[in-house]
Amino acid sequence: MDTPHESNTRHDAPPLLRGLGLAEATALNVANMVGIGPFITIPIFLSKMGGPQALVAWIAAALLVLCDGLVWSELGAALPGSGGTYHFLREIFGRYRGGRLLSFLFIWQFLVTGTLELASGYIGSMPYVVYIFRDTALFQRANRALEAGQTPLELGAMAAAASLLVTLLLCRRIRVLGWFGIVLSAGTLLTVACVIAAGTTHFDASLLEFPAGAFTLNLGFAIGLGGAMRIAIYDYLGYYNICHLGDEVRDPGRTIPRAVMTSVIVVAALYLTMNIAIIGVIPWREAMESRNIAADLMERLYGRPVAVAFTWMILWTAAACVFAMTLGYSRIPYAAARAGDFFAVFARVHPRERYPTVALMAIGLLTAIFCCFPLQQVIDAAVTVRIGVQFIGQIVALHLLRVSRPDVAMPFRMWLYPIPSLLALAGWLFVLGSDRPGLILALGVNGAGCLAFLVWRCVTRVRGQAS
Questions:
Q1: If we measure between CA atoms, which residue out of 235, 294, 225 comes closest to residue 264?
Q2: Side-chain half-sphere of 299: how many Cα atoms within 13 Å?
Q3: What is the DSSP code (8-state) at residue 81?
Q4: Got the DSSP string for 143-212?
Q5: Contacting residues for 164 by C-beta, under 8 A, at least 6 apart
Q6: Burial of 277 per CB tally in 10 Å (0-12, 13-18, 19+)
Q7: pLDDT tens digits for 190-211?
Q8: SS3 state of residue 249
């Protein structure tokens, strides 16, 4: 083990403000987790396993994120700071050879996976926009293209423009954004509640028929389960969002664990109920082909005018999701730059409003670029590429923290340690192994990151010698 590397913290970069309490933290998590996700992924999710047996994947994914949520909770309470996983990896692995490489790799892959995740929200919301305006001349061609299974170029451009608009709206002080997050989250929960109420009051249990051999345990079942779990995990992503804002949380040792676990339990219950409610009204074979499943549900039950009004609520939900995600994700490259582990320009903070300017704008621009890719490819890549460095890396980091850092206070400790962390590790390995193209992509992204790290270190040393 090397001696701890010298501090690279940029003391000239001013700190952010601690303005988030439990209500704001939980609201931002919930807004991130729910968002547009389940409204755009249920058809893909059902198709992965070819029927309602895919609900098993919702439950398996919920158990996985509950276990992983305990990892995030313990790390977030012990080491609160901007950047989430980056901050954890730097603090724990920084004193070991190669520790800075691991931190750099996380930032590198995050700039891909984080913005892919954001882009999926914008991409997925576009068919709902078309649904509202499908009878207007502007959107008739787009609607015909969607019906033919194509993705019109103008929808990608609209999604990219929306991402830039949200980025500009986030150029505000954190206290204002915290209350805005509560308002958006309230709209999100109302939207989900409407779907659940509509589905459960018209529920037909006979529609939940399973195809022959649905639960035959073979290789096909395992591959399908892994694919469906990737979709479900994508919908759960965000349960850790508040860890990215650790520098801006009041009493993080108590607030972060409570926000993480509360949001996971609430959203897991909502998701499972909503999925059952939808396929209890729309036959699952029909649901697999839907482009806007929630609007189809409302139109079937109450007619198009009600469905259009409800679709506006879905778009509100999408706005809440990308709002919370962009806010949290912008703090990750900021934290790395402020600590001297990434390009220094990302540490810049607005002199009056106190938000990270360059980091926020970079996230918005990359998201706009990825809005031009197909939705399912974006979702799979957003989940699989991050597993190795982020989820598995910080599970290892937590165990190392416990045995090697007695100097770190632990205000929250994982329940039944180490069982949940080991279950989470097994779950992440299964999901990663079930996606061979994603695994190859992950290796490629991280391999390129290693080369980028060497270039960055050389440039940093040259500049250091010059100064």
A1: 235
A2: 12
A3: -
A4: HHHHHTT---HHHHHHHHHHHHHHHHHT-S-HHHHHHHHHHHHHHHHHHHHHHHHHHHHT--GGG-PPPT
A5: 364, 365, 368
A6: buried
A7: 888 899 999 999 999 888 888 8
A8: strand
Maximum average pLDDT range among 66-80, 141-155, 313-327: 66-80
Q: Is the dihedral of CA 372, 374, 380, 385 positive or negative?
A: negative
Q: Is 288 helix (H, G, I), strand (E, B) or coil?
A: coil
Cβ-proximal residues to 220 (8 Å cutoff; 6+ apart), any chain: none
Rounded Cα gap, residues 27 and 189, in angstroms: 10
CA distances from residue 190 to 111, 195, 236, 313, 324 in whole angstroms, order as listed: 32, 9, 18, 8, 17
Q: How far apart are CA 439 and CA 443, in angstroms?
A: 6
Name the β-bridge partners of 356. Answer: 349
- Measured CA to CA, the distance from residue 103 to residue 98 in angstroms comes to 9
pLDDT > 70: percent of the chain: 91
Residue 228 pLDDT class (50, 70, 90 cuts): very high
Q: What letter represents residue 146's amino acid?
A: L
Evaluate the CA torsion angle 107, 239, 435, 40 in order and state its sign: negative
Residue 9 amino acid letter: T
The b-or-e profile of 371-384 (16+ CB within 10 A means b, else e) is bbbebeebbbbbbb
Note the pTM of the prediction, 2 decimals: 0.83
Compute CA distances 461 → 84, 442, 458, whole Å. Answer: 27, 28, 5
pLDDT for res 4: 40
103 near 120, Cβ under 8 Å? no
